[in-house]
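pinning this so it doesn't scroll away 📌
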Amino acid sequence: MANVRTRSSDRRKSTSVERGSREPAAVGRTRKMLVIAQDPSICNSSGQPLTAEIEIPAEDLSPGPRGYRVHVVDYDASSGVLYRPAPFRDPKTGEPMVHPPDLESPDFHAQNVYALVMRTLARFEYALGRHVSWKIPGHQIKVVPHAFADANAFYSRRDEALVFGYFPGRKGMVFSCLSHDVIVHETCHALLDGLRERFVDPSSPDQAAFHEGFADVVALLSVFSMREIAKHMLTMERAGLPKMVKRGRIDTREMKVDSLESRVLFGLAEEMGQEMGGTRSQALRNSLGIQPRSDWRDDDQYQEPHRRGEILVSAMIRTFLRVWELRLADLASPDEEDYYVDLRRASEEAADAADYLLTMAIRAIDYCPPIHLTFEDYLTAMLTSDAEIHASDERFQYRKHLRDVFAEFGILPSACADPRSGLWPDWTKPMPAAARSLGPRLDPVELRYDSLRFESLQRDPDEVFRFVWNNLEALRLSRDAYTRIESLRPCLRLGPEDGVPLRETVAECLQWLKVRADELESRLRIKKPEGMPDSLEINLQGGITLIFDDFGRLKFGIANRIDDASAQTRRLQELWDHGYFSDGTQARRFAAMHRSRALGASAHAKEVW
């Protein structure tokens, strides 16, 4: 049994909060909390760690802090000690703890990790237009700020927890629970696991890389969306380079993509996570070192999931830089030869660009196929989800820059996308003639809606299954496969500019078909990998994401189907080459390859998918 101890910072008079009572119910929709903006290695001009005041959803909190979605449990597995829950309010003032942080205080550690987990959850829910559930039996995920003495941090579905380690560094103890991008990265794993459970199933190299790449993208954009970080990036000095900011203003003619990358982001990358070691991936530094090239898939190093995920990170960061450059140029007045912009405005433009891309990156999850994801699918999903909210892309051209940058990496919209726009075809509109010429998967189809109830279609998986069953052939799904509605989620998304609501219902439909290896070609025209035993049972998977509009009509059908012979042949060959079907390894999750990044030399615990 764990020992229960009082924290060193708790040696004070007992209060009602410490005795276990909750704080008074929160007033208003949000509350402000103070957090470390990136990690303690990034300091302001006075040498203090850079902090930021963030807004998170207000709720009734118990000591821990413990709310309705997040429960901070300070248990140290290395020492077997369970510390008393941290009070949310300062016992001296009775106010929420938003004063300058004490980096040695376990109470502040608990507050910091709680606030950033809640901020990330709120960003997902804003982008998706609904509540997002964890992939755990309960409603509250456990967050353990001092879980073990090791340079590691991870999400564990089995333990229903986000766990953060600590370890000795060059200047004292290093706590991963004080690193913004580490906290957001692991929270992103937990949220993505709740949104798309099958993204950790054995599949293509892109899907194996996506969990890590997406978590890094969200973490970095979350950091850049903080104005304090943007200002720090512009004002920090690099050896051998002149200052960018003079008398509080910055010359936009110097703020080009190459300069922003080499002087701003590389400078931040050198500071970020200096003490973190194996806890983080140095995703920013690694992604900036990747130059755009279309033949990266032929390079063996990009067959490893972490390295492959850095391609996605690099493409998104370069898109961010191009949009930032355009936004800065939009502020200047070249007609009056006034190219100088106030530092505060330049920082705001960076934060706003990152925040917009962050919303695009998260919202795109709803527009992805439920399984066998590729980078091409994800690019198409980002373009489509943004076009649904913003018909015009003229001002800052987020979609154009995404397409251009991803094309430099040889990543084009999906073959099933509209060839002109790069968007998923809208099934409620006539199909362009150019799209029809690409193949039968893009032909317009007649769908049956008879006997369907619109209200039930929004909340009843059986009603969605009835729609699927009545339209198996039109949706080109297999009638022989086991079919199930995996999830059903009504959404209400709001455009940030006009506030016009977009109501949609998102459903995941999955199919499974078990066949012997010697039946693959005769039944499905799928080529069996050379050397695979004929008697081996193969469990094929496929599925379709169904997005219904506010009239109950199917607007998008985003599928990776069981009977896609070429894709399944390629997928089986890749799994066979990685040894998935041999030596009993079929029982393991393919995504276990992800864990190789974060594990230290003497890990006390490991992430289990």
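📌 and the second one:
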Amino acid sequence: MVGVPARVRGRARSLAVAAVGAVVLAGCGTAAAGGTGARPHGTATFALQPGTAPNWILPFEPPAYEFAPNEFEFANLMWPSLYRFGLHNQLGVDYAVSMALPPVFSDGGRTVTITLRHYRWSDGAPVTSADVRFWMEIVRAERTNWGFYVPGEFPDNVVRMAFPSRYTFSLTFNRVYNRDWLIGNEISLISPIPQHAWDRTSARGRVGNDAATTAGARAVYQFLSHQSQQLSTYGSNPLWRVVDGPFAIDSYVPVTGESVLRANPGYSGPDRPRVAFIREVPFTSDQAELDSLRAGEIDYGYLPSQDLALRAYFRGKGYALSPWVSWSITYIDINFRNPQVGPMFRQLYVRQAIQSLVDQPGIIRHILDGFGYPTYGPVPTEPASAMLSAVERDWIYPYDPARARSLLAAHGWAVHPGGTTTCARPGTGPGRCGAGIRAGAGLSFQLRYGGGFISMTQEMEVLKSDMSQAGIQLGVQSAPESTVYADVAPCDRATGQNCGWQMLDYGTPGGSWIFGDYPSGELLFATGAAANGGAYSNPATDAAINATHLGSGLAPLYRYEDNVAAQLPVIWFPTADYALSEIAPALHGVLPQNPLQFVNPQDWSLSR
């Protein structure tokens, strides 16, 4: 999976969108897309991608848990953010089905005021501004433990909060920001949580106002996060029964990660569920999912790309095949602080050489059978968007093994195709290998990737072979996506924690990072950002990112993405369609699929 968070990323991340050039849906017919008043019935079974079982329920994800299944297919169905995105295959926000009215700006654009619609928690209590304040108090106290935190940005840039009424709140920022960026990347992150049920520091403690102080908020978070780690209690813990989304947790199997969500009868949104239960089934491999799909056990599954020959078989069974294209990018993280290979990664020419050995067109054509698209930089090339710069519409580092060899030779390396290229001229200056690279050091790297997908294994083997054309030795090893993703964290030189990994591709098909926001990159490539796992740091990139927050129009965004596309803070890799979805004939309301990888089961219905 992807953004955001993807695939979510993999990773992924993404909670929001307010995209320039996207259609902003203010009054379309989506509001009537949900229930007709009929009682929900039936169980719809949804296949999760291999290795992507949700493992965190609290709607405040630490970096190690901030990946797509926890957000898009789990917590967001129970505790949605203020605004909904990606409906009708659009990248914009749909205010008609969101729990808040469009934000209103004042004070020259520094203050935003938001009015909540009258939603209720599943226990009957109203969703109020106190629930927003509670979430903000937790975020402020535990910002460094939050997967979306970027130093100096949200919530650091909020200088004043006000809660003048039960359903209204306002945030005043330290300066005037680009409104598209502010809505898409900051305000969109807000998810009300039930203050009247969760503001406590122990299971038997009374609910009070503990989070009003920093120390109290930290104690509340410690209690809630500890509860979120108790996977075996997800189905029984009374905390998780208080929801304001369309579904609530019914059961969870810790050994496999299978979960069942039940329709929330007290859901206040206009799109009330029409199915009684959603069963989310994880798999250990593509083959296991395919076997279950063929057995008729899955209503909403996917056809592995290597099994496209079975399209006719499933068509004959009444299934509808629909490629699910997500607005995401795919890349391989590189550890700039790794003590052995970090000095090599810090040389731009080394990154350029590696990138010139990634055969994106070949992978898309021969492994993905055309169901994918290239990643040229930090903004997705598909679906089409006005936010893609002219530079990113083409490939500035095309597949070119001869160029890779030439780059390395020109910088002091003895190139040995099929063997190991070594540093022959150490030191700094023209024609030298660069700072920190010793004489005789070899270009040899270890790459871990999210397993369970035959296509991913094929891609890694092709990459390994192509790297050898310039004498770069690549060792590849698979592991469950959640395990690999947990390793994507900046190296702490003082303690040595997270310093051992060298290269990581934690993404499954559909993108390493799912975008649903204004794609300005502060979460990924800004110095010190929580999701900047490789610890990339470049003052010019930081300046370009900051300019996208303040400027208007698309020019600042274009300058940022052109900088990042060229600087290669990661190694760009082709993005597979998230899934070749197979939809059972009895399941309706799935299409069109959300390009941000959110699932919207409240819009589904069953005819059996």
